[in-house]
Design goal:
The chain has 127 residues and is of the alpha+beta class. The chain contains two helices and three strands. A three-stranded antiparallel sheet has the order 1-3-2. The longest helix is centred in the middle third of the chain and has 25 residues. The chain is elongated and about 55 Å long.
Length: 127
């Protein structure tokens, strides 16, 4: 199956899309949106391994942060964020606004993690 996020793309604008150009806000301070390119997303479906379930079960006996699940969640978020950013780059965006995460249990032990936002082209307000 082809990767829809990394299948080539257009030449992007002068400002490069990096982490500083992604925001959960509806605007990016110091920039104005000149064009909206639409929704971009990254999605992954993760499951816990038998070993992970065992170690997580042991950690629940002692209480506190269940680090094995925390790491799994962070890896899923990082992967979906990266895919969303690649999707935006493919469209020629140099920023993403209104970025959000969402997660849904597909079935017991299987979780879908989604990262999405609006890909935009911005330019500095003061040149």
């Amino acid at each position: 199956m082809a990767d829809p996020y990394n299948s080539g793309g257009r030449a992007g604008p002068a400002t490069r899309l990096d982490d500083s150009m992604v925001t959960t806000a509806m605007e990016l301070p110091g920039f104005r949106v000149v064009r909206s390119l639409g929704v971009v997303r990254g999605i992954t479906v993760r499951s816990r391994s038998i070993v992970g379930n065992f170690l997580g079960g042991l950690q629940t006996l002692f209480g506190g942060n269940i680090t094995i699940y925390t790491q799994l969640c962070e890896q899923a978020r990082e992967e979906t964020y990266r895919d969303m950013s690649n999707h935006a780059r493919m469209l020629g965006a140099n920023a993403i606004i209104a970025m959000r995460y969402d997660a849904t249990d597909v079935m017991t032990g299987l979780t879908e993690v989604l990262c999405y936002g609006t890909a935009v082209i911005v330019e500095p307000t003061h040149v």
